[in-house]
Design brief:
This protein is α+β, with helices and mostly antiparallel strands. The chain is built from eight helices and 15 strands. The structure holds calcium ion (2 copies).
């Protein structure tokens, strides 16, 4: 109940932030004037009414509570289809594409589309390069040397890519229940210890909100959502479970109070700020299990490890789970600034069971 009330507050915050961003984005043709204040008030009133309604009816609320965005006079939205476990939703191993080092050809072949600040509202974009190399996708967004004079490309910024199949309509029924996302990463170079590439999930169409478990090349990470310009964290350190993924403990003593870092769980090495490229050229697999109430639980292994080890679990003592509920379901690829590397074997399946056998997509969205 407490969580539901918190989410109502968060929903109100989201509405207010939308209103605020409209106000601050007023163009010269349409100056932000007193009508903005009226809109904000209306939004607040509606949200308050909705909050009151929700707060008094949440005892029996289940997953449908997040759907309540219209007034009670509207007919109810059609129920989201229920999807059974063990269906393959997405499978991309890049094995069927010819090698190419032309970015445009690579993205066209795999049906990914670069998102832009102007059209898609994403925070940043970069002239990252892509290549298909022997059945893997290579991304290059880091230049070890300065660009030659006259080269005006934007390099090394955060950059976002739509995976054309994994848009809102396709993913929504999946994300309303539990699903598993898995993919392989192998970083090759980066400017700094904190850089990463990541498959982000629950991405909103306005580019403002998404979930991100970003594994950094130096062997640590974060399990977070990006929510209207700020990061909220899903996990928290608990010595009983030791599943706080942001730990940068440098020895056993600090690990006992901050948590065991990914680097130790996978390689037996503590965080070391001098070891900038600890995970360069070490293939890893990331698996995350989505729970629509709590967020993603995250697991990792190196190619040498037989079994996954859990690195993160959402916690009721963290703020992230309270923020779930924005209307966004797409799955996208993000390059976290200055990094190069490979991605391969991106698979999504329903439920939290073992990976289904085969490569064929068996999930069929309702017509
Ligand atoms: Ca492959
Ligand atoms: Ca490079």
């Amino acid at each position: 109940m407490k969580k539901n009330l918190m989410r109502v507050c968060v929903s109100m915050l989201a509405i207010l932030m939308c209103a605020a961003s409209f106000a601050s984005c007023g163009s010269s043709e349409e100056p932000a004037d007193t009508t903005t204040a009226a809109t904000t008030t209306a939004a607040t009133t509606e949200a308050t009414t909705q909050a009151t309604t929700e707060a008094t009816t949440t005892t029996a609320a289940t997953t449908t509570k997040k759907e309540t965005t219209t007034t009670t006079t509207e007919p109810p939205a059609p129920p989201v289809e229920e999807v059974k476990d063990g269906l393959i939703v997405f499978y991309e191993d890049f094995n069927s594409y010819a090698n190419t080092d032309k970015t445009e050809d690579a993205l066209k072949a795999i049906k990914w589309t670069k998102l832009t600040k102007e059209k898609d509202g994403v925070y940043s974009e970069s002239d990252a390069e892509f290549a298909i190399v022997d059945g893997r996708l290579y991304y290059d967004n880091y230049d070890a040397e300065a660009l030659p004079e006259g080269d005006t490309r934007v390099r090394g910024k955060d950059s976002y890519y739509r995976i054309d199949m994994l848009v809102d309509d396709y993913m929504k029924p999946i994300s309303m229940g539990k699903y598993t996302l898995q993919y392989d990463l192998e970083y090759t170079d980066s400017k700094s210890i904190s850089r990463y590439a990541v498959v982000i999930t629950e991405c909103s169409a306005d580019g403002q909100c998404y979930n991100s478990f970003h594994f950094r090349i130096g062997g640590y990470g974060n399990n977070q959502c990006h929510f209207y310009g700020s990061w909220k964290t899903y996990d928290a350190f608990d010595p009983a479970t030791d599943l706080y993924v942001a730990s940068t403990a440098t020895d056993a003593e600090t690990a006992a109070t901050k948590g065991t870092p990914i680097s130790f769980k996978l390689l037996g090495k503590y965080y070391n700020k001098e070891d900038v490229h600890m995970f360069a050229n070490i293939p890893v697999t990331i698996r995350q299990q989505w729970d629509p109430e709590m967020g993603h639980s995250c697991f990792m292994k190196t190619a040498e490890m037989k079994d996954f080890v859990q690195v993160s679990e959402p916690s009721v003592n963290a703020d992230g789970p309270m923020y779930i509920g924005w209307d966004g379901w797409a799955v996208q690829f993000k390059i976290g600034a200055t990094i190069d590397g490979y991605i391969d074997n991106i698979v999504i399946w329903t439920g939290h069971g073992a990976q289904p056998s085969g490569k064929t997509v068996t999930y069929k969205p309702a017509a």
